[in-house]
C-alpha cells in the first residue's frame, strides 16, 4: 500500500494538553463555542476532529488553550480557513490553515503567542521521543 504524500509546508506536532474551540454563529447577534479535538499543530495550521459540519473554504474563529504545569497559554479569536475535510471512523477530520492575511496576524503579540505554542509542543514532542528511545 502506497503512503499518501504529506502536503504540509511544515511538520505538524502531536498535541499535549491542547484544547480548541470553534465559534459557530447562530444568528446575527449570537454565537456558541463548539469543542474540537486537535491532533496536530504548527504555526500555519492544525488538524482537528469534530462531529460538527464545516465545508472546505469556510472561515472559522478559533480559541486554542495549552494547559501547562504553571498555568495556561490562550490564543483567542484565531482566524482559520478549512482546507481539507475527510471522513474517518465516524468522525470528520479537518485541516485548517490559519488566515495569515487577517488582522489577527498584524499584532506581533499574537504571532509570538503562536510561535511559543509551537515551541512548547515541539519541546514536549522531543522529550517524549527521548523517553521512547530509552
- At CATH level 3, the topology is Thrombin, subunit H
Radius of gyration: 15 Å
Task: Please name the fourth-level CATH homologous superfamily.
Answer: predicted glycosyltransferase like domains
Number of discrete helical segments: 1
Keywords:
134 residues; alpha+beta; Thrombin, subunit H; six-stranded antiparallel β-barrel; 6 strands; 19% helix; PilZ domain-containing protein
Offer a quick outline of the entry.
This protein has a single domain, classed as Thrombin, subunit H (Beta Barrel).
Structure description:
With 134 residues, the protein is an alpha+beta fold. The protein has one domain: predicted glycosyltransferase like domains (Thrombin, subunit H, Beta Barrel), CATH 2.40.10.220. Helix content is 19%, strand content 46%. The chain has one helix and six strands. It comes from Oleiphilus messinensis. This is PilZ domain-containing protein.
Amino acid at each position: 500500500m502506497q503512503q499518501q504524500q504529506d502536503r504540509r509546508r511544515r511538520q505538524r506536532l502531536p498535541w499535549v494538553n491542547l484544547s480548541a474551540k470553534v465559534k459557530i454563529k447562530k444568528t446575527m447577534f449570537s454565537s456558541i463555542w463548539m469543542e474540537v479535538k486537535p491532533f496536530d499543530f504548527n504555526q500555519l495550521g492544525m488538524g482537528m476532529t469534530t462531529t460538527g459540519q464545516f465545508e472546505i473554504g469556510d472561515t472559522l474563529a478559533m480559541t486554542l488553550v495549552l494547559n501547562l504545569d504553571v498555568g495556561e497559554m490562550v490564543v483567542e479569536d484565531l482566524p482559520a480557513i478549512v482546507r481539507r475535510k475527510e471522513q474517518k471512523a465516524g468522525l470528520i477530520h479537518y485541516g485548517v490553515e490559519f488566515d495569515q492575511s487577517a488582522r489577527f496576524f498584524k499584532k506581533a503579540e499574537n504571532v509570538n503567542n503562536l510561535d511559543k505554542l509551537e515551541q512548547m509542543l515541539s519541546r514536549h514532542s522531543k522529550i517524549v521521543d527521548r523517553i521512547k528511545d530509552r
